[in-house]
Specification:
Strand content: 5-15%
Helix content: 25-40%
Number of domains: 1
Number of helices: 3
Distance between the termini: 23 Å
Strand order of the largest sheet: 1-2
Largest sheet: 2 strands, antiparallel
Order of helices and strands: HHEEEEH
Length: 89
């Protein structure tokens, strides 16, 4: 378990390493209203250190589902993540 995941001890929390930025590019491309706009998290044109929380039953089909929370860096939005997870139980 990484230091980041230790900060959010919830079985629903997952961390992904996206070394080739494939997921980051897709998430940028698929982001749309009514999804919240991120206030951070671009490095060299790619999303990084971003937390995305999805509603119960959300499924990534042709495009990414609209997130309830889409922001970061993770350490700065920990309380928002916990709140979003609590709302979706």
């Amino acid at each position: 378990m990484t230091i980041v995941l230790k900060r959010l001890s919830d079985r629903r929390v997952m961390q992904f390493w996206d070394g080739d930025h494939v997921l980051a590019e897709r998430m940028s491309k698929d982001a749309r209203d009514p999804q919240p706009k991120q206030n951070c998290c671009k490095r060299n044109g790619h999303l990084w250190d971003l937390a995305a929380v999805y509603g119960v039953g959300a499924s990534w089909e042709q495009s990414m589902p609209v997130a309830v929370l889409f922001d970061g860096p993770v350490v700065d939005v920990k309380e928002k993540i916990i709140e979003a997870l609590t709302l979706k139980e």
